[in-house]
Amino acid sequence: MSGYPYMPLLSSTIAGRSVIPPVKRGEFANRSGRAVMLQRLPTDAVATTMLTITGVKAGSEVHIADPSRNLLFSDEAATGAPIRALLQRYAAGSPNNLVRILIVNLQYETMDITYELESATASLPVFQRIDRNYRNPT
After folding, report:
1. Same domain, 10 and 52
2. Do 94 and 35 share a domain, yes or no?
3. For all residues of the chain together, what is the average pLDDT?
C-alpha cells in the first residue's frame, strides 16, 4: 500500500452499500468485514529501521538528523560499543529516507555521512582517521 499515491475517497457505494471513509489516516474503512481502503499520505512512515553504527571510537559524539526537515533523531556520546538508533522509514524514493550522520571527536577527522534507509535493519561500519592537523593547545 505504501507505493500508492494518496487519493481521498469522499463517498462511494460498494455492493449497494454506502461507504464512508475513515476520519483518521492509517485506518481501514471496514464494512461487512471487508477492508475498503487505507488512507496514507506519502509523508507517513511505513516501517521502522534499526540503524547500527559500528567502529565509532569512545568519546566521539554521534548526531543522526533529517537534513530536509531539520530534525535531530539521535544525539549521543559513544562508549566504544555500537550505536543503535530506531528510525522511521518511508516509501521507496522518499527524501525522508535520507539521514545525516555526523561523528565528531577532536582527535579524529569529523565524519559527515548521508545515508539512505532502505531495509528493516541497516549496519554502517565506520573507520575514524586520526586528525593529523589537530594540535592540543594545553
Report:
1. no
2. no
3. 76
Can you tell me the distance from the alpha carbon of 37 to that of 35, in angstroms, rounded to the nearest whole number?
6
In terms of residue numbers, what domain contains 56? 47-125
96: three-class secondary structure by DSSP:
helix
Phi, psi of 95 (to 5 degrees): -65, -15
Q: What is the pTM of this model?
A: 0.66
Q: Are 52 and 64 in contact (CB under 8 A)?
A: no
Instruction: Note whether 76 and 97 are same-domain residues.
Output: yes
Helix (H, G, I), strand (E, B) or coil at 117: coil
CB 132 within 8 A of CB 122: no
Instruction: For residues 7 and 16, give the distance between their C-alpha atoms in angstroms, rounded to a whole number.
Output: 22
Shared domain check, 51 and 17: no
Indicate if 34 and 54 belong to the same structural domain: no
66-81 pLDDT, tens digit per residue, is 887 777 888 888 888 8
Q: What distance in Å separates the CA atoms of residue 86 and residue 49, rounded to the nearest whole number? A: 6
Q: Is 57 exposed, middle or buried (0-12, 13-18, 19+ CB in 10 A)?
A: middle
Amino acid in position 129: R
CATH of the domain at 112: 2.60.40
- What is the residue type of 82? P
